[in-house]
Specification:
By secondary structure, the protein is an alpha+beta fold. Helices cover 25% and strands 17% of the residues. The structure holds zinc ion.
């Protein structure tokens, strides 16, 4: 059903609706949420979009009226891809550089989940920190200078992602999500919060790996578990990222800025009181600064002891 009309002509915007211009970082899901319309209704209202996984900055989207009761059905949609997301293909940029090439780099970093601050074409300390974090995450020297090595790392990302290949329809929650270059195995666990599921996609893409979900919505307090756990509010997920240690997942989530506001991130270590090491992500439901905590991590936090870092 996600498959749209297979033609590239732009159909006239329905007069019984508002239009919206796609901004960098938008997905159909985020637009649907922002406008309070069901994702399916949004897709139906835009037959000109032949592939919901590919929307473009500046593209006009028709927002249907009177569909605010439409349900969000959990379809996942990859972030918009545009040539603007590509970093500059030549030259060297460093702190103090200015101009459109810097904006391009800033957009590319932001697209990968590394917050460069304002996209203003001014290579300042925040852009440098974001670039260093990107370099570190890709295993190259974190010198904060954008040159051939960083350029190559961005290209490797592009090659390993779906870019340039036909994308597939979205899958139900219980199947791996193969959109983007990361994926999510829900293993039958229910994570009913659409905002959190969207975040998981972003994290999977950020690592370019499969996320294994080990727990989601809970209606009971398990042994060692907290009575105020966000799992009970159906806004938390426990996970591992395949091929990446929990410790590294935790520190990269912290340094990347992907979860800078509104989340509680806990690394439950090998001494955890909650039944096996994992990374926990809970969504507070407001925009307070995120909290990063350790529990049951030898030398850092005892069993059942939550230490903010
Ligand atoms: Zn948890």
């Amino acid at each position: 059903m996600i498959k749209g009309v297979d033609n590239n002509s732009v159909s006239p915007i329905n007069s019984n609706s508002n239009s919206y211009n796609v901004k960098s970082g938008d997905t159909l899901s985020t637009i649907a949420k922002e406008k309070g319309v069901g994702l399916n209704n949004l897709i139906k209202a835009n037959p000109q979009i032949s592939d919901p996984n590919k929307i473009f900055v500046g593209q006009q989207i028709s927002i249907p009226n009177g569909s605010s009761t439409g349900s969000f059905d959990g379809l996942s949609v990859r972030k918009s891809s545009t040539p603007d997301d590509r970093p500059p293909q030549s030259g060297i940029l460093r702190e103090g550089s200015k101009g459109p090439a810097v904006s391009q780099l800033q957009r590319a970093l932001a697209d990968k989940g590394f917050n460069p601050g304002q996209i203003d074409g001014d290579f300042g300390p925040r852009t440098e920190a974001a670039l260093k974090a990107f370099q570190k995450s890709r295993g190259i020297e974190a010198d904060g200078i954008y040159g051939p090595q960083s350029r190559a790392a961005f290209s490797r990302d592009a090659i390993s992602s779906n870019e340039g290949r036909p994308s597939r329809p979205s899958r139900p929650d219980t199947k791996p999500d193969t959109n983007g270059n990361g994926s999510i195995s829900y293993n039958g666990k229910r994570v009913s919060d659409p905002v959190l599921r969207g975040k998981l996609e972003q994290i999977a893409d950020f690592f370019g790996r499969n996320i294994t979900v080990t727990s989601g919505d809970r209606d009971f307090v398990p042994k060692g578990g907290s009575r105020t756990s966000l799992h009970l509010a159906h806004r938390a997920v426990d996970l591992h990222v395949q091929g990446v240690s929990d410790a590294e997942v935790f520190s990269r989530l912290k340094s990347s800025g992907i979860l800078s506001n509104g989340y509680e991130v806990i690394r439950h270590g090998p001494n955890t009181a909650t039944g096996g090491p994992h990374v926990h992500i809970g969504r507070y439901g407001d925009a307070r600064p995120s909290q990063f905590k350790l529990e049951g991590v030898p030398g850092r936090a005892g069993a059942g002891q939550y230490v903010r870092v």
